[in-house]
Amino acid sequence: MKITSRLKAVANLVGECKILADIGTDHCYIPIYLLKKGKTNNAIASDINEGPLQAAEETVKKNNLNEKVSIRLGNGLAPLKENDFIDVIVIAGMGGETIVNILENIPCHLTKCRYILQPMTDISLVRKWLDEKSYKITNEEIAKEVNRYYTVIEAQHQSNAPKLSEIETQFGPVLLKKKHPLLKEYIVKRRNKNIEVFSQIQKIECETLKRDKNRTLRREKDLLEEVLRWL
After folding, report:
1. Which UniProt keywords are listed (predicted)?
2. Rounded Cα–Cα distance for residues 3 and 130 (Å)
3. What is the mean pLDDT of the chain?
4. Taking CA atoms, which of 81, 101, 138, 205 is between 20 and 30 Å from 24?
């Protein structure tokens, strides 16, 4: 089964597990890919909307995996029960704020799971939440599709998890440590976007708003250039 670079990066960080849960599964591509690769024994695919679940059911049926995949309707982690014995949870293809809202409601029986997160926006917000809640980022990956970059985070709860610095929160502790081959071009793109937005902000008439946005953009630019010098 062929999947996109983004989904493959997610699947690679899942690695091997016994029971996988894919939250916001859409077409159920990740569970099916991992089942076909023999990386997981069973999967739960859930979504808050019936439309994506119907698409998921069709994909599962087409691949003759009905006995291996449980399709469930529900919000966030609510469809996952204590007797499911899940070891890995994937939350991918959503905004960072949505992912954080889902993580805020982790039930006790899912705290020890390994989480694979792929935020489409607000990546630093997700890392900040993980840091504050003592989830250690154990691995990270970047995937590129055309001109867009996608970051994937693997995290697991650890009571003595090391705290993240500002730079690590922004750009990823593991990505920085291993100097990921796509990290430099991703940061260059962010820097160029920063310069473009800074230029647009100067047209704002409200001086207070302009001053606040300029301060934020200058700080981001300083961090971007500091990382680029190191890379």
Report:
1. Methyltransferase, Transferase
2. 28
3. 95
4. 138
